[in-house]
Amino acid sequence: MVEENVASGGPSQFGAVDLSSAAQASEPSGGGINVPLIATVNEANFEEQMGLSQTVPVILLFISSASLASTQATREVENVVRSQAGAVALRTIDVSQEPGIAQALQIQNVPSAMALVARRPVPLFEGAPTKEQLVSLIDQLLQAAPQLGVTGRVAVSEEQLEKPVPDTHLAPRAAEDADNWEEAVQLWKKVLANDPGDKEAKVALSRAEFEARQQAEGQSESVLSRADSLFASGAEEQAFDLLLGEIADAEDEADKEKARERLVQLLGLAVDKDAVKRARSRLTALLF
After folding, report:
1. What pLDDT score does 50 carry?
2. Whose CB has fewer CB within 10 Å in the chain, the N or C terminal residue?
3. How many Cβ atoms are within 10 Å of 86's Cβ, its own excluded?
4. What's the number of CA atoms in the CB half-sphere (13 Å) around residue 216?
5. What is each CA distance from 197 to 63, 68, 96, 173, 193, in whole angstroms?
6. Which CATH fold would you assign to the domain 3-161?
7. All CATH 3.40.30.10 domain ranges in the chain, comma separated
8. What's residue 21's pLDDT?
9. How far apart, in Å, are the Cα atoms of 41 and each of 102, 149, 181, 185?
10. Does 253 score more than 80 pLDDT?
11. What are phi and psi of 130, to 5 degrees?
């Protein structure tokens, strides 16, 4: 039975890609084959992936739909595969739906991954890899694959390389489109409750909270409201200055903390990176 790897602290196993024990390489294949860049696999189409691996390296990602770690790993692996623009294909296998494949390949934990290169399995990782670890592993895989004559690519369109909107993001985005920012805040919080590692949702929640405050506060003259108004108008550094002044001068510690929290939130939304750097430096000086 495949079980989720619940050990904390990151990946449980990562190793270098090794094809040294493989047999004589086959003839190289041409690039630009018309197959999906990312797809799911079942027993009925598994042999097709073996055949595909004779042309382009295929990553098999083993997940469980009930595993939060699997959700996070899927997002990271898909993003890195798209960045390779067809040099490697990704095939996802839900072990709860396809236990036969997992048993045949002796998969013990999810998430985990192996590559198929010229029909040969190459272990990649168990656990939840970071983006840096994934990039390194795939780079090694692509350097090693030509040893087996695997030099082809998947023909990809711009649409395939674009990151799709997750289904869980559709409802909060619809609320945003309807200008219902309070509802959007609650929906983004729900997304993050189910997937705390969703970085896009974290940024979206901050933006939704900002917009909801703008709707609710109107022409309020509080420092926090004025900072929000300045930020919304594009005067980001002025908003930072106002909040930093409140942190420095407010007598009530609760007011200082509210200003600090609002500043941190706005810093995460800002586009003026130089202003962000200056504000962070001033905030550090004030706090320490």
Report:
1. 92
2. C
3. 21
4. 13
5. 16, 9, 23, 18, 9
6. Glutaredoxin (3.40.30)
7. 3-161
8. 40
9. 11, 24, 39, 36
10. yes
11. -80, 170
Residue 168 tokens, joined: 């869980």
Cβ–Cβ contacts within 10 Å for residue 62, how many? 25
**Residue-by-residue DSSP string for 162-227:** SPPPPHHHHHHHHHHHTT-HHHHHHHHHHHHHH-TT-HHHHHHHHHHHHHHHHHHHTT--SHHHHH
CB burial of 143-171 (b: ≥16 within 10 Å; e: otherwise) equals ebbeebbbbbbbebeeeeeeeeeeebbee
Q: Specify the residue for token string 């997992």.
A: 102
Count how many residues are written for the chain: 288
C-alpha span between 116 and 127 (Å, rounded): 19
Q: 61-86, pLDDT tens digit by residue?
A: 999 877 778 887 888 899 899 988 88
- pLDDT mean across residues, the chain: 82
Residue 38 forms beta bridges with which residues? 90
**Separation of alpha carbons 264 and 242, rounded Å:** 13
d(CA 31, CA 8): 40
Residue 52, φ and ψ in degrees, nearest 5: -60, -35
Q: What is the DSSP letter of 21?
A: T
Q: Hey, which of 63-67, 152-156, 210-214, 219-223 has the most confident mean pLDDT?
A: 152-156
Residue 13 has pLDDT above 70, yes or no: no
Token pair, residue 78, equals 């898909």
